[in-house]
Amino acid sequence: MTALSPVLKQATPITVDHGEGCYLYATDGRRYLDFTAGIGVTSTGHCHPRVVEAARAQVGSLIHGQYTTVMHRPLLALTERLGEVLPDGLDSVFFSNSGSEAIEAALRLARQATGRPNVIVFHGGFHGRTVAAATMTTSGTRFSAGFSPLMAGVHVAPFPTAYRYGWSEEQATDFALRELDYLLTTLSAPAETAAFFVEPVLGEGGYIPGNTRFFEGLRERADAHGILLVFDEIQTGFGRTGKFFGHQHFGVRPDVITIAKGLASGFPLSGIAASRELMAKAWPGSQGGTYGGNAVACAAALATIEVIESEGLVDNAAARGRQLLEGVRARATKAIGDVRGLGLMVGAEFTTATGEPDTETAAAAQRLAVDKGLLLLTCGAYSNVVRMIPPLVVTGDQIEEALGIWSAVLDEL
Ligand SMILES: Cc1ncc(COP(=O)(O)O)c(C=O)c1O
Q: Ligand 1: does its nearest atom lie under 6 Å from the Cβ of 398?
C-alpha cells in the first residue's frame, strides 16, 4: 500500500469531507470553525457559491488553454479586472501557480531588469520553498536545512521586530535601517543590488506588521540607488489586512508585488504585477510554465474579486480584525508575551516566565483549540506564535465563537 510521505507535517489529525463558509466538516461528521483558511487562501470562505458556479461553468467549456500556446477569455478578463484593484502604476501582470513561483518570477525580473546579481531580504521573512525562495526565506532553518548549497546573491537585513529585540518600534526601526545601510556598504554594493524583497506583515515569521518609517526608508534607499522594492503580498493581499494590499497601510509605492493565496479562493494561481516599462525589461520567453494562468483558476479569481468587492470583504476584514485583535488581547494570560496583527492576521506569542519563546505551550494551545473545534496554526521562528487567519467572510458572531473557545483553551493550559 502506498503512503503519504512523512515530509508532510500535519498540523491536525483531521480528514476533511467538505467545507462551507468558515466551517470545515470532517469525515466523522464533526464541524470545525476554520481560522486557518488554508493558510490564508480561502478568503471568500470554503466553496463560496459564486466561486463554485464560476469554476463549474469554466470546467464545462475549457479547463486548460496553455498560455504560451493560446490565449483564453478568463486569462484576458482577469488581467483586465486586476487593473481595477492593483496599486497605481502596476499595469502589467504575469501569472504562475504558487507563491514560490511568483517569488522566483519577481527575482528573475529584478535581476534581468537591473542587470544586478544580489537581492536583500529581511530577517524573519518567508518567501517559499523552491530553492531560490527558500534561500530568501529566513523565518526558520527548517525551510532550508539539508539541501544546501542554496542560491548565491541573497543578503539578509533586520526587520523591525521590536518585541523580539525588546525595543520600542522606533528603536527597532532605527536599528533595521542603520543595518541596511551597513549591509549596502559592507556586503552588497548598491550597484550590485537588484531588489529588496519584503512582506508588509511577516507571516510565517510570526505575524509581525512592519511600519511606515521602515518601508519609507526602504523606498528612499531604493530610489537613491535604482534598487527595486518588491512587496511580497502573497499572504497579505486581496483584503486580508483590511486594505486591498498590505503595503497600502504604509503609503509606500512598490515596484513589484507578488500575489497568490487569496487571489483565487483555493485554486492554484499566483502572479507578479509591475509597470509595463519594468516588465518590458524582462527577457521574452524567459518565464512561463505549463499551468500558469489556468482557465478554471482565472475564472475563480474573477469571481473572487467580485465577491470581495460586492460583499465589502476588505472593510469586513478591517472591522472583524479589530474585534479579533482586541478580543485576543483582552484574554491574554501570563503565558502570552505579545498579541499583534493587522486586519485578519492576528498572532499571540507564547513566552515563558523569563520571556523565552514557549514552543510547547503554543503547540498545546493549538492542539487544545483543535480538540475544542477551532482550527488554528502556529508560526514564528520557534513556532511559539499561535496565528488566527479566518476567511474574510467571518461574522462578528463567529469571531466571538472563536474567542470563547480560545478562552477555554487558555483556562485549560
Ligand atoms: C508571504 C509568503 N510568500 C510566499 C509564500 C509561498 O507560497 P507557496 O506556498 O504557494 O509557494 C507564502 C506561503 O505561505 C507566503 O506566506
A: no
How many residues can be counted in the chain? 413
What's the pLDDT tens digit per position in 295-337?
999 999 999 999 999 999 999 999 999 999 999 999 999 999 9
Q: Is 100 in the pocket of ligand 1 (CB under 6 A)?
A: yes
Q: What is the pTM of this model?
A: 0.98
| CA 83 – ligand 1 centroid, Å | 23
Atom of ligand 1 nearest to the CA of 268: 10
Q: Is residue 135 lining ligand 1, measured as CB closer than 6 Å?
A: no
Average pLDDT, the chain: 98
> Distance, CA 413 to ligand 1 centroid (Å)?
31
- Over residues 181-198, the pLDDT tens digits come to 999 999 999 999 999 999
Residue 330 CB neighbour total at 10 angstroms:
10
From the alpha carbon of 125, which atom of ligand 1 is closest? 1
**Closest to 147 (Cα-Cα) out of 129, 162, 123:** 129
* DSSP states along 80-91: HHHTTTSPTT--
Q: Relative to the CA of 199, which ligand 1 atom is closest?
A: 1
How much is the average pLDDT of 100-106? 98
Strands (E) in 78-122, as ranges, are 92-96, 118-122
Which segments within 186-302 are labelled E, that is strand? Answer: 193-198, 201-202, 208-209, 228-232, 256-259, 270-274
From 43, 95, 127, give the residue whose CB has the most ligand 1 atoms within 8 Å, as the site to mutate.
127
Which pairs from 133-137 meet CB under 8 Å and 24+ separation? 133/99, 133/100, 133/103, 133/104, 136/103, 136/107, 136/197, 137/204
The DSSP letter of residue 283 is P
Region 50-62 average pLDDT: 98
Q: Alpha-carbon dihedral of residues 36, 38, 44, 49, nearest 10 degrees?
A: -120
Identify the bridge partners of residue 258 per DSSP, sorted by sequence position: 232, 272
Q: What is the rounded distance in angstroms from the CA atom of residue 184 to the CA atom of residue 191?
A: 9
